Amino acid sequence: MQMPRNNRSFTQLMEFNIEPQWQQALVSALSEQTERLARDHQGLLSASIQASEDGRRVLNYLQWQTREAGEAALRSVEAGEQDFWRLVHRAKAVTFGSFEVLCNIERSLDNALHCQLVD
């Protein structure tokens, strides 16, 4: 099924390189921040926070209904709490990326795979 270009969802990816002793604190802070975003902003479709097994990286994935919803939420985070930003500044490197979703493959409750292409 093709979706019109203006209906494409929007994904934000943030990868943090951090010392292993700070990984769990960053995961906790990102979890709290993501819960606030879901509660305070319309349009969050899904989110995921992933930690590398070596303790040195954390990946934060946020998918929004629209680019506008994601950007509005990001602006609120930029003006966010000092404790959160102090922890983020412990990262050796942070990579931010924004992506337009072109294809989703999902498994339904009946175990069927569905592929949704966006033109």
TrEMBL record:
The keyword Lipid metabolism does not apply. Residues 10-77 form the ABM domain. InterPro entries: ABM_dom (IPR007138), Dimeric_a/b-barrel (IPR011008). Keywords: Monooxygenase, Oxidoreductase. SUPFAM superfamilies: Dimeric alpha+beta barrel (SSF54909). One of its GO terms (molecular function) is monooxygenase activity. The keyword Oxidoreductase applies. It holds the Pfam family ABM. Gene3D superfamilies: 3.30.70.100. This is Antibiotic biosynthesis monooxygenase.
